[in-house]
Write a structure and sequence with these properties.
With about 170 residues, the protein is of the alpha/beta class. It contains seven helices and five strands. Helix 1 crosses helix 7.
């Protein structure tokens, strides 16, 4: 049985880390699973796109299409994507029948301390324009199926909450 877990949050909030943990969990069960990480997908499917609102929307729609194709072929899809706009996430919800939105919530200050890709440092230095959460908009979900708070809970706690919620929703 396939489904899509759409993890949205600020850069450095823990989306990809959780997705990779979940990927290992589902693979250990012999399940087909793919992680659609926004940065990785951008390199191959959206290399010419920048970070304007229109370009982010186009990139997100490409990820939605990939998730749709994978999920209809019995693959669990773990989307790790900032996806800063509610409108695009609502579109994902309308296109993906077995869908769970997870807000990977983490205070901006903690994300900036983590800064795994050095983006916040580059933004402060003026090297990165349109940094989500700083100089560009992030619209937190208004009613996601689940919120995980990565500054307050361990990786395993967050991941296990997602697994439990997917079971409660009848997705898994």
């Amino acid at each position: 049985m396939s489904f899509v877990v759409w993890m949205t949050g600020l850069p450095g909030s823990g989306k990809t880390t959780i997705a990779r943990w979940l990927e290992g969990h589902y693979r250990s069960q012999g399940r087909k699973v793919e992680v659609l990480d926004g940065d990785e997908v951008r390199k191959t499917l959206s290399p010419g796109l920048g970070f304007t609102g229109e370009e982010r929307t186009a990139h997100n729609k490409r990820v939605i299409h990939m998730a749709k194709v994978l999920s209809r072929n019995d693959v669990i899809v773990l989307v790790s994507l900032i996806s800063p706009y509610r409108k695009v996430r609502d579109y994902a919800r309308s296109e993906l029948p077995k869908f769970m939105e997870v807000h990977v919530d983490c205070p901006l200050e903690v994300c900036m301390e983590r800064d795994p890709k050095g983006l916040y440092a580059k933004a402060k230095a003026g090297e990165v324009k349109r940094m989500t959460g700083l100089s560009d908009t992030y619209e937190p979900p208004e009613s996601p199926e689940l919120v995980v708070e990565t500054s307050k809970e361990s990786l395993e706690e967050s991941a296990k909450k997602i697994i439990q919620k997917s079971i409660e929703m009848g997705l898994d």
